[in-house]
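SEVERITY: medium
COMPONENT: batch folding queue
REPORTER: lab tech (J.R.)

DESCRIPTION
The queue accepted two submissions in a row. Attaching both inputs and their returned structure tokens so the on-call engineer can compare them side by side.

ATTACHMENT 1
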Amino acid sequence: AFPKMVAPRGSLWPRPCNVSLAWHRRKPCKDFAYPSANLLFFLNNWDNVPGFIGLSTAYFIHFVSLLQCDLGVAGAIGEIGVAGGKSFVTMAFSRRAGETLLACDLFSSGQEKDNVPDANLPLFLDTLETFGIPRNDVSILKQSSLQLCDSDLHRLSSNRHQARQKDGSKEGGVSDGFRLFHVDGGHYVEAALHDIGAAACALVPGGVMLIDDLHNMGWPGVQEAFHRYMAAVQEQEFSVQQHEGSLFEHAVTKARFRRLRRLRPFLYTGRLFLSTPSHAALYHRSLQRAYPGLKSHTLYGVEVISAP
């Protein structure tokens, strides 16, 4: 493990990763953690749940989760910017046995004062209870995400591994990093850039990050943060290519300089979905086969499917 790194070039440059999540062998897909009846009850009451997520986005979250299951991708599910909990519960219903749930929110007025009516802890806890997500299944952080780095997220993704079942045996958790992470915290550029970078570093190979409000010009900081992150990764990759065979001769040395996590976008449907490059390509092909009528557009040199 490397010592914790600070962000160079001031706060508008992504922080390098402090953790490096190695590829794990394919993990068998476990059963869903919650009954399908709970999910159906949630969907039947969709319009009554406070939040800002469409059914199309919810559908594709679960579609991608099934692809992850087929590919043996397992890990925690996390969200920065929970508000009333609609998007969190949407993701939570894709949870498999042993996977951790993490929710981080100020649950109060932040710097932007943009979501105060829907950002309070009692409302979030009530949403969990209403739809049968046990409070003890969720690690809730009532704090700013700016106080967290990627190594904190990685630790929190696995802090329930050794929880014991009623019979005294270990649960056998599978989380070691995140397979789903929704970034919807502070919408000013410094906060959004921090959250994107921390979540990217904490993803397992094949993990998927969702970025909200990317095209909402009410909050242009999110768009700027995303493009700053992608441009920094491209600059990093260019530097590595330029020095191949000299400074970057050995794999270990390369790893020390590849400190920003490279992600590839593959789907836009209310949120931008990104994953590690090889898995993003797999997800993209699977979506194309399943929905050949959906159009694709080029973003940062790759094709991104656009769904309604």
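ATTACHMENT 2
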Amino acid sequence: KVLVGPNKYQEIYGFGHRLSDEDATLKTEYRRITVARKGHASNSSSVLELTPSHLIYRHGDDTPIPASLLKSTDLLVGQNGEVLQILKIEKEYRYGLYNPLTADGRIVVGGILVSTYTSFNNLASASFDRDRDSPNLVLAGFDTGFSWHSIEHAFFKPFAFYCTVLSNDGCGEETYTGEGYNYAASVAVMISRCLAQQNETNPVVQVLKVAASILALAIVGVVYAATCSLESYAVLLVLLGLGFGYVRIGRSRLH
């Protein structure tokens, strides 16, 4: 079990992203964050490494933000809610990537509270600037107001229920795509990439797209968790692909 909050432990029920050093063909960018408890000496520091798009809790904020937005003046949250100050932030590049999932959607790593989820704005935006990322889903420059943490936590809820309550092995025998995503996470990636191809700038249309995407994610999550059947999952993927293809064809005919 892993720590997810003050004196609270949970099982890791799966991995949203799991790519070993041996399977990775490219190095992944990381943020290496060194922190210390506020007011304490730096010799009691701890270190956390996470990708720039991984969500982390800033002290005083309810919604976690992408690590790429952290500044040296920001304060973070410790495992017992204590305030942590950032001593330095460094960039690193190395092979391999592991993103564990817990029922609460949170995990404590190196004494620091982080989300188990990631911003997909780099996939959902055709012109992405990592330094201007957002904790919310952004489409065509429009901030939808839907936080990535909330979207992904809602989507993974059925999957978490299956793995922690219904499954005997805790979904320990998951299979992963060539990019290292489990099949549930790969749907979110697919939809994000599809949205990146859309050029609609009307905020109302964008919100409708987001609502439709969340509904599609929820349907996939429920069916996948209820059946744990790759055949059912494949059928849903085809249906979703046809749906988005139809939308693109329809849009092209309107221009």
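NOTES FROM REPORTER
The CA atoms of residues 48 and 110 lie 6 Å apart.
No errors were logged for either attachment.
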